[in-house]
Amino acid sequence: MLDERHQSDSLLAAFPDAALVLDTTQDKVVALNAAAATLFGVDMASDRALRFSGFLGAALAKFVVFVEEVDHRGECWTRDVPLTTLDGRPLRCEIRARGVPDVAGCLLLSFTDLDAFDKRTQIAEAAELHRAGLLEWKRAETFFAELERQNQLILNAAGEGIYGVNADGKTTFVNRAAQEMLGWTTQDLLGKDIHSMIHHHHLNGEIYPSQQCPIYRSFRFEQVHRIEDEVFWRKDGKPIRVEYVSTPIYDQKVLAGAVVIFRDITERKEGERKLREALDEVAALRDRLEQENEYLQEAISSERAHHDIIGSSPAIRQVVTRIDLVAGTDATVLITGEAGTGKALVATEIHKASPRSRRPLIHFKCGSVAPEDVEAALFGHVRGAGPNAARDKPGKLELAHGGSLFLDDVEELPFEIQGKLLHALQKSTVTRVGDTREKPLDIRVIAATTHAPTDTRSGNRIREDLYLFLNVFPISCMPLRDRLEDIPLLAAHLLKLACRRHGRPVPVLTERVVQQMQAYHWPGNVRELHNVIERAAIVSRDRKLVLELGGGGQVASPTNASVRTEAEMQEMMRRNIIAALRETGGRVSGASGAAALLDVQPTTLYSRIKSLGIDRSAIQP
Ligand SMILES: Nc1ncnc2c1ncn2[C@@H]1O[C@H](COP(=O)(O)OP(=O)(O)OP(=O)(O)O)[C@@H](O)[C@H]1O
């Protein structure tokens, strides 16, 4: 029995809840475990005879009802019986009770401290909540990490360079394209002032203060900027041309920085530059062609192409010899002579016989352009260089590149232009008005002046240094009055051309007409002769040449030049008779014969033919 008692005490002690055995008949606590002692504030060592009613206070009646219910049901529980500790502190408990088998009036009571239980429940619930919150947080973290990864993938897959800056201008992220374009890595740039690393200078070398930078204005003043052409500087110091958009970014409506999306347009700009250059080149070529065409038209209309140098005088022979000597070289030639003596013709012949003949001879009459326009005419201009400079235009120097430049009446050039011209010719470069770029020049210069060299220098018409530069190889064209023996040949040649042009039969130059021409002093030289013949070709009828010389046909007062030797007169007559015979196909007499043309008797003509030794072979053309 003792053993049994000991066993039940041990079971009671091991019971986790507060529990006790109550003898209801004597209101006596037979046994209680440590948890019950703690709950009720009982000292197990000293409090030996414990009455259960000591824990009930005013609730004894409720407890009696409860005991009766236990009796009736065998076991029961209640939360309606308020308890107190030994020292009177109220306890809120759930009481469970069951009768002890075979011991009448004995109950086993267990107590659950409801306040402690509620506390545990709260802790359990809090723990539960905490666990659930952690899980939620983990899920959110994973979600955002995935989002971030996706965003990074998108940012890195973008072809445009993208970087972000915070409100202090410090880099917050850089995508892959930006790293590749700039050569800087994310590590290089993150947290650094990106303006000072990639945007510090303009392309022209000027410093670019960050306060002037549109990106700065984006994250400072909330402005969106779209810039079409600026430079970013690579890590290796090379610039890349970029277009970009900088947009402010906000964090909860607060300006947090800016995002910059940029594109490398270096290649595009280079392409545009090349295209512009090509178009300029095309425009220059077009201008050049237009001018060359103008030149050719002029050349054709002046019939210079059909002219050779006519004349057999020693002066003309010397001119021809000197042309032959100089044509094959690149030497500068200075042609002197009065107006109309054939200076332009000589220049043309030099060019035609030179290795440059495949390129044009550009003829510039220095006095034909207003002094203020001479510079642009010679050197060309760029668009906007003057009120009339609507587009780029090459000057005569450029047009003559590869060919020859004929500076006619060079003494008419304004003095300061002479200096500039000399500079360009010596340096073999040309710079258009309004431009700074020099272009190489490969030209041969032929100049002409109506002033004798000594006059020009003393009269200061040509700068001495330019004169020295030009006068490498002088050629002098003699006035027509000083080489009268050339008149019959020149007159016959010009008459043939004029008649062909006007569709007229060629009249015969009679000896009298030739003498008349040779007696004239020809102030306008060959040009005047050309005009006189032109008029004659128009007014002459019936093959008789009607000559209208300047000054009302006056024969010039005799000068030394108009006196002919007998031999010269004979030669002149001989040529005239041959010309007449050629015109009439060898017929001497009759209305269409040479005698009629020459206005002499046929018998006279026959005797002259004989005395001058003119035979059939002489009249073959
Ligand atoms: N020896 C010549 N043979 C043939 N034609 C000539 C000769 N000399 C001059 N002419 C002709 O005379 C005209 C005037 O010649 P050119 O224009 O060469 O003279 P210029 O000395 O250059 O005159 P300017 O100084 O007034 O410009 C042209 O039609 C030219 O072909």
UniProtKB/TrEMBL annotation:
Domain of life of the native organism: Bacteria
UniProt-listed InterPro entries: AAA_lid_NorR (IPR058031), Homeodomain-like_sf (IPR009057), P-loop_NTPase (IPR027417), PAS (IPR000014), PAS-assoc_C (IPR000700), PAS-like_dom_sf (IPR035965), PAS_fold (IPR013767), Sigma_54_int (IPR002078)
Every Sigma-54 factor interaction domain range: 309-538
Domain PAS: 147-199
Gene Ontology terms: biological process: phosphorelay signal transduction system; regulation of DNA-templated transcription
GO terms, molecular function: ATP binding; DNA binding
Function: Required for activation of most nif operons, which are directly involved in nitrogen fixation.
Protein name per the record: Nif-specific regulatory protein
